[in-house]
Structure formats: structure tokens, C-alpha cells
Amino acid sequence: MKTKHRKLSLTVRFFDGSKGYFAAALAASLATTVLNALMPQIFRFSIDSVLGQSGFAFLSGHLWILALLLVGVAALSGISQYICRANTAMAGENFAKNMRDALFVHVQKLPMRWHDRNQTGDIIQRCTSDVEVIRNFVVTQLLEVFRTVFLAGTSLAMMLSMHVKLSMAVLSFIPVVVVYSAVFYRLIARRFIDADEAEGELSTVVQENATGVRVVRAFGREKFEMDRFREKNETFARLWIRLGTLSGVYWGVGDLITGFQVATVIVLGAAEAVRGNITVGEFVAFASYNTTLVWPIRGLGRILSDMSKAGVSFERVDYIIRAEEEAYGKAYKNGDAGESFDITFDHVNFAYSAEHAGGEKPLPQEAEAGAGSYGQVLSDLHFTIPQGQTFGILGGTGSGKTTIIQLLTRLYELREGQGSIRIGERDIRDIPLEELRKCVGMVLQEPFLYSRTIRENIAACAPDASMDEIRRVAKIACIDEAVMNFPDGYETLVGERGVTLSGGQRQRVAIARMLLQDAPILVFDDSLSAVDSQTDSLIRKALGEYMKDATVILISHRITTLMGADQILVLNHGRIEETGSHQELIRKDGIYRKIYDIQMNQDDRACLDAGANAVMRENIHAESGIHVEAGTKTEQGTRVEAGTKMEPGTCVEAGTKTEPGISVVSDIESGNETGGVSHGSL
Amino acid sequence: MAAYEEQEYHKPFSLRTWGKMLPFFKPYKKYFAITMGFNVFLAAVDVATPLFQSYAIDHFITPGKLEGLWRFALVYGLVIVFQTVCVYLSVHAAITIEMNLGRDLKWAQFEHLQMLSFSYYNTTPVGYIHARVMSDTLRIATMVAWGLVDMLWALIYVASVFAVMFFLNVRLALIILLIVPCIAVLTVYFQNKILHWNRKVRKINSQITSAYNEGITGVRTSKSMGIEKENEEAFFKRTSEMRQAASRSAKLNAVYIPAVLLFSSAAAAAVLAQGGHMVQEKAMGLGTLSVFLSYAVIIFEPIQQLARLLADLISCQANIERVTDLLEQKPNVADREDVIRKYGDSFHPKKENWERIKGDIVFEDVSFMYPDGKEYVLEHFNLHVPAGMNVAIVGETGAGKSTLVNLMGRFFEPTSGRILIDGVDYRERSQLWLHSQMGYVLQNPHLFSGTVRENIRYGRLSAADAEIEAAAESVSADEVVKKLEKGYESDVGESGGRLSTGEKQLISFARAILADPAIFVLDEATSSIDTQTEQLIQQATARLLKGHTSFIIAHRLSTIRQADLILVVKDGKVIERGTHRELLEKKGYYYELYSRQFEEEASVRVFEGATGNR
Q1: CA-wise closest residue to B227 among A357, A109, A110, A551
Q2: ipTM of the shown complex
Q3: In chain B, N or C: fewer CB atoms in 10 Å?
Q4: What are the boundaries of each domain within chain B?
Q5: What pTM, to 2 d.p., does this model score?
């Protein structure tokens, strides 16, 4: 009952702005029905007056008047029919537009947590196909229901007014038709589900065969695939033939029943006319009302089944509508502007969790989407970035560095008891979302570009930017030259229908885009990882001049990128490992120093035998005071076992892993060992 | 999928195109005969029905007697029963044709797809292929089974109605005939306009789908830049266009249908005026007049239907062209006649003649250009890979690393030069021979719907359960299996969608191990995989490559360093080759690539190590 109520209130909401159309359509539909009901009356009248029974001698001499009347009524009916159809269409299209718009706006505003849980394809399906089903229902079926009722009502009224007994004979068929239609629709619906599933399975085989063509060929499984396809194809054809045959029975028997009904009217009507109970004209009119009554009633069965389909679609769309939007907060308050932009993380603890995602039921795919990511991500993070500083964050995979930024921009919200983040004196939860996000510009490692032109992409945040401004930021991001080399220059389309940019180019376009945003806080999240080191330093130099006043947060694993920062935070599994300037951290001799040594000494080390690992291992081992002899491993094949067999004490590095044998150190060793072996064999 | 725009066909009716479908129609001659035959009956019955009313008026009501009414009722009843039987039989025949024809067309295409080369798959979106096999065939089958039959029915119906009318009264028949061309012109005019707007609607619709896609996949970026408003406005513009185009089409329809009805009422009115006089002058029975009135109203339905069907028939030609296009695609890689005779084709292999591959591979003066490319990506390339050697191919994303692998696996053939396997040009052997002895593990591993067990068994169909489990254990895929509720019998979902990329990779390793091929091709995953699975995969990789000739499109340093030979690819060309050490000493492009990769992995490892201290 509650869901019915909800459907109704949603329908009302989407009908906003088209109630007038709908009312006009309804009125016109009613008018059409009445006008159409007049037609048989004209026939009846003409037949009777032509025969001279009712004594309209004048008319029987001037039949053209009746003919004109007929055309006149038909024209009126045509006009009202047009009004009805046109208004229905407007109502339906408006309804669909409202629905599409509402969904788009809503989906944009749903929190990231919700997006994490739901698959893109599924959401799109709901926003397109399901909306289409509902639109179809509103445009065609909903009015059809009213029309059927009107039509049946007027026809019956007309018939009853002419001859009650004959009308009863007609009426007695109606329950038969209705029950029969309903029963058959159920039967057909059941077979339809089977057939539909078979179609889905067949479709999957085709889809998977085409996407997996490499696997099929590589394993030489063409025959196997064909056998599988043949089986599904046969089942599909068989089930549909079965369904079609049943429909054949349905239509055949339906024709039989209505045929008998028409025959009954004619036979009984003829008898009544002979007895003089009705006139010939009435007989003809009666027969014609009967036909207008029979068809819509047969159509009712179909409408009922469509209605349940639309109901399902409605439910699927409502799944999205129901989800709760982000709290965007109050509009911009003037007094707040111009404050300081110091960023403070105050004892922040954070874990991604499945709750609060908005939907009622978790989707099946959700279970794996966040596999392993629901643990504690940030623990007691406490630091301040003074305005105008350049702040570096160094961290490994899963250290939570990206989470810091997502929290800062409230893509994910901190909840009570998880600490707080402040910009200036204000808790970010008190800053309206739009304002907050506009003042943090960021470039992600794998930036998203819109399938628009390069110019539109760069100007995404500043649609009014002039070409000069766009080229200026593009030059800073070292992308101008590459863009000018495209035949269409800045008007080149990106994505599906345009050019495919390389990872480095995408990152640089994203940097240009961010520069144009002109935000006081800039974040670079591993955003030059796909750019070669020369271009990297060029960009950094250009950026350095450009962003003098901005607060800059650099996230990277490349020391050269971070070393110029005023302050560097080393983040390790959600905890602050160490902080300080480059010089301080070097002196500290911690993780930062180790990474620095490895990365800076690369040249020398690379030319040494099997390179990197030896030094790296020494570094690690020197630090942890553990010495693992390369000699412990003899063959590459024993690598895994060697890791597991090590005494807990001797292999502290492996200690983090709960699973035996999965140890970073042992892996590095094996890399070295096999490297050595293979070199020897060459 | 929706974003892939179909080209529109504007071609006139062509018998040649339809002729290509004839072989597919042939097996169903009998059913065609049945459905057409019964439709002729049906049309006749439909024409006859109004005659009953006229008979009743002229024979019972006007003379005022009831004699023979029961016989009349009986005949009427029998005709109705006959009609029911006709409906059922013709529907049954039509559905049989539709589904069987559809099945045959699907089958022919699927079979052909199994033989087409990779170049076809590289240039054709999966959605397009899918639509060819599923939707186009359905439309053709539906059109042929129902459309042609309906057309026949309508033609016969119209013809017989006019025949009856001319038989009953020539003058009235002529009045109705006069209006037919008007309706035809009206229909053609409106259909064209409506079609135009409908195309527009379809186009905007696919734009809306793309917009949703972008709105959802780019939600993080849009949110962080705070440009939701701008996106919304762009979207609203599209939906407004949609509303306009869709209502235009609907309004045209709204004019068209009443207009046709108006014509039919005009015809009825003319018949009424004219026929009324005739009845008064006793030149015609009242019953006949009522028949004409009925015909005047219903004749337009089949005429409209004919016009619509004709338009459908022509647009269906586009479907036929798409299907025949696919069927006429020639595979770029095909086995020679004599090779097929000796080794069998893909569906009937003669395994008894197959030689076991040792895995010695030679590229001999190979030049190669992609079929759709403009320049050579390989020129006079020479390479010898002795059996058991591991070759790593490195380079940036999109640099063309898979070219060599595609050539080696004969998914493409060299434009000039030869590739020898165990000393013999691989074109001397069948494709299946090579593919059956080659293991292929993809970066984005592809699994099929079904259970884990079924997926592993794909590597060797005859494998026993124990062998499958052993294969899984040998690459630690059993770690994945253990986590699944039903173990090996767990459903992996469509395209393996219920598993993560890393898990899919492990399963696909097991599949490859089970096949136990002489040559391995491995495309390492680039996407970030959680550390644990990553470790499992690295171990499995080493296990996989041991003792096999292998080509690895490598992304991990550990794999690269293990390789016996590294080929460095840039802009589609092999620009450096050598061992890890040689390449580093060269300080060239590899050095640059390596350093970047190294920095990243180094810090990751130090962090992992540091955590260990905690």
C-alpha cells in the first residue's frame, strides 16, 4: 500500500507542468468517444428516414444533409482526436523529460558511497530503458485505459437505450472475454518469462564470444563455442515457437468468442427486427456499437500486463530517486569569503564502509567492489597546512593518501567521532559543498576527460574563458604544442568519437583544466606519473611560478616531485610515519631517506649487475638490522617456500602478511635471483 | 553500445538484396505455403463477414420473415469456426518461419564470426556485432514471417473488397476507389516526415545515453570541480531537444490518423448520399447499402497497413544488408586448401596429423602493416626465440606492444617475410594447430558465464575434476576458490563479473596451465590489484613461464627482469632490444621507462617493508 502511495506521489511529481496537457487530452478523449458514438446514430437515422418509417420526408429527399452531418461529425471527431493525441504526446514527453532531468540531477548529487556500490551499466539501464517503459505506459496505455472505459460506457449506454434484451445478450459475453483474456495473459506471461530468459542467455553467449574472441581462438575452442551457441539458439527458437503457438491459440479463440458475439447480435437482432421490436437502422447501429465495444475490451488484457511491467520499471527508477543526496549546504555566505585557507586535519580517523549508501538492498556486485577496502584507512591523522605552503605527501599503495583529498573535498564525509577537517576557522562540514569544492582544484592520476572538445575540457570550470587564457594554461601544462598538432587543434573531440589521448596527455589536459579553475588550494594526486621526467620538471617549473600564492598539495611516490615542498608528510597505512622538510627528513634516516637513496642512486645502481634489488635490499636490511643472505635461495622455484620456511624472527619484513609465503622481501630476492640466472644463461 | 551510431540506409527497393536471403527461406517453403494459403482464406472470410449483416437485412428484416434464420446462424457460426482455425494455423506457420529463419540466420552469422580475423574484431565494436546477430536477424525474420504475410492478406483483402463492391454496385465502388489514391499520397507524405523525426529521436536518444554514461563515470571529477550545474544545463538542452523531436513525431501522427479517418468518413458520407438515393429508387437493397457503409469505414485500415508495410520492407533491407555484409566478410587469416586437407579446419580438426610444438620461433625478415593502417609498424624484423626462452615486451600504454604477439599467434599474418615455428612457416600448418598449443592469458582476463570449474576446463575440455583442481592449486587460484561460497561450483557471473580482475587473472592462469601449451602469451594486468592477490599472481606467473617459450607484455619489473630478452616498443615499433642489463647500460628509452617504473615500485616496497617493522 505504501509503495502504491509512493508511485502515485512520484507520478504526480513528474506530471508537473503537464497536468494541463493531460486534462486536455482526457477531455478530448471523452469528446472523441461521444462524437464517435454519434456516427452509428447517423447511420441509423439515415437508414430509418430513407425507409420513411420515422416520417422525415424532408430529409429523405435531401440525403446530402445527412452526408454533410456525417462528415461534420467526423471532422469534429478528427479534431478532438488530434487534440487528444497531441496533448497526450506532450504530456508524455514532458513527463519523460522531467523524469530524465530529475534522474540526471539526482545522480550527479548522490554521494560517492552510492556510486561505489552501483554499477554504471545498471544505473544507465534504469535511467534509459526503464524510463522509456514508463513513458510508453503514460503516453499510450494510461489514456487507453480511460478511453476504453469511456468507449465501453457510451457504447453500452447507446445499446441499452435502443434495446435492453439485446444489450443483455451482448453484456453476457463481456465477462467471458475479460476472464479469458486475463487467464491467457497469465499463461502467456509465464511462457514469456522463459522465452525472455532464453533470449538473454543467447545474447550473453554472443556477447561473451565477441568480447572473448581472443580466448576462444587462443584455445582453439571455435567448435565448443558453436555447440554452445547451437544449443542456446535451439532452445531460444523452440521456446518462442511455443509462446507464439500459444498466442495463436489465444488470438484464434479470441476471434472465435468475438465472432460469436457479433453473430449473436446479428441473428438475434434480425429476429427482433423482424418482430418489429427494433428498426433496421437500430439494428445496423447496434451491430456497429457492438464492434466498438468488443475490441477495447480484448485490449484490456494487454494493458493489464503492460501495467505490471511499468510498475516494475517504476520500482527500478525509484531505487535511484529514493537514495539520499549529498548535503550541499546553504548558499554562499558573503561574510565567509577572504578568510585564511589554512588546512587543518584534526585527529581524523576514517574507514570506508558499506552503510549509508542510500539504497535499501546492497547490490550483489557491491560485495567485491570494495573488497579489502573497508578496513581502517586513516588513523589519527593530525596536521596543518598553512596557507600558501607547498605540502608533499609520500605514501605507498593503500596508504590512504588519496582518501585525504577525498575527505578534504567531502567526496566522502567524516562522521561524528571521526575527527574534523578545517579550512581557516571553519569546519568543512559548515562550508557549502559547492564553495568548498570550487576552492580545491585537483588533478587525479587517471583524470577523467569529458567527451567534448579539448577546449571545452580545459574550460570545464570556466566556460567563459577566452582562447588566450586557455592556451596560456595549456602552455603551462606543456600540452599546447601537442594540441596544436591535431588537425582540429583545440576543437579536437576527446574520447569515443574523437582522438584517444595518451595517459600523459590526459594528465596534462587535466592540469590545464585545474589551472583555469583558479582555486586557492591545488592538489596534484600522482598527476604527473605518466609524464616523462623531463616534461615533468618543465611543468613543475612553470607551475611553480604560476601558483605562487596557492596552497599546493603534492601526492607522489617520486622524491624529485616532492623534494621542493615546504613540508612533506610520509603516510604509511593511514598513519603519519614522519613529517618535515626534505632536509629534515633526509637527516632523520627514516623511510623517506631510504626511498630517496634508492631513487637518487638509480644511475649507479642500475649499471651494477642485476641492479636495483641489491641496493634496495641492502638499504632495507641495513635499516631494519636484518640480514638475509641471497644464498638462502638456490632456485627460483623455491622462492615461495623459502619465504614460508623462514623463522618469524629472521623475516620481519614478511611479518606484516598474515598469509605465509607472501612476502615482499622474498619477492625482491626472487627477482634478483632469476634475473641473475637468466643473465647467466644468455 | 548505444553510442555507436548506425549508419542510415536510404536505398530504393532492391531485389538483389532480398535475393540473397532466398537460400535461407528455402527450407520453409511448406510453411510459407501454409501461412499464405490460410491468409487468402482469412482475407476472404474477413471480406465476407459484413455480407452476413446485409443478408440478414435483405432476406429477413426487409421481407419481415424468420424462415431460414437458423440455417443462416449455423452457416455464420461455421464460418467463424473456420476463421479461427485459419488464424491459428497461419499464426503457427508464421511463428515457425520467424523463429526458424531467425535461428538459421543467427547460426550462419555466428559460424562465420568464428572464422573472421582479429582485424575485424579490432575495428568493429562488440555492440555492433551483437546487434548483427541478435537484432538484425530478428527484424528480418519478423518482417519476412509477418510482414510479407500481412501484406499478402492486405492485398487480397483490398482486392476482394473491391471485387465484391464492383460486383454489388459499380457507381458506389468507384466513389470509394477514388479516395484510395488520396489516402496513399497522404500516407507516404506523413510516413516520410514521421520517419525523419523518428531518426532524430533515435539520435538524441543515444546522446542522452552517452550523457548519462559520462555523468556517472565522471561523477567524481564533476563533483570535485563543482560543475554539476553546467553538466545539468547541457543535459537539459538535450532532453528539451528530445521532447521537441518526439512531440513533433507524435503530433504528425496525431494529424495523420484523424486525416485518414476523415477521408474514410467522407467516403462513407458520399456512399450514404448516393446509395440512399439508389435505395429510395429501389435500384439497390438496403442491405447492400449497409455493406458499403461498412466497407467504406474498414477498407482504409488495410490500405494504411500496406503503405506502412511497404516502408518497413524497404527499411528492413538495411538489416539484410548488414547481415549479408557480415556474412560476406572475408577472414584476413585463412588456412590454405592443402593445409585444411591435411590438418582439418577449425570445426573438424584432424589431430592425428598434428605435430607437437617445441616452441622455437623465428621472425624472418618480417614486415607488417595493419590491414586498416597506413604505415609499416614492423620493417624487416628478425628475431629468434629458442624453445623455452622468455621474451618481455615493454612500452607505454598504446605503444603497440601487442603487434608482435598478434603476429606470433597468427591472429595477423606478416605482410611480407615469414614466421617459422619449429623451423616451418606457420602458414604450412592450420591455425587451430597453433592455437591449440598456445596458452593465452590476457591483461583483462575474459571468463565466460558459468562455474569456476567450467571456466578452468575451457583450457582442456577432457580434463578430469582432479586435474582442474591441481591446475588451480599450482597457480594458487585455489585461494580464490576457497573464498567463494560454492567453491569450484560457484557461478562467476556474466563475463566473470562477480570476481575481481586479480581473481579472474588467477582463474585464467589455471585455465592456461591446464591446457599445458608449448608457447605462452601473457598480457600482464596494469590495473591496481590488492597486494595479496598481486603476490599470488607474481608467483603464478613465474610458475607459468617456467620451461615454456613465452611472450609477455610486461608491466611489472619482476617479470621484466626475469625475461631472457626484452623488446622495447615505442610508437608501434621495436626500438630497442636486449637483456635488462644491456638496455640499462644503453641509457636509452628503456632506461627512462624503467626508472619511472622503478621509482614507483621502490617506494611501494619500502613502505611494505616499513610496515613489517611495525
Answers
A1: A109
A2: 0.78
A3: C
A4: 12-168+316-332, 170-283
A5: 0.72
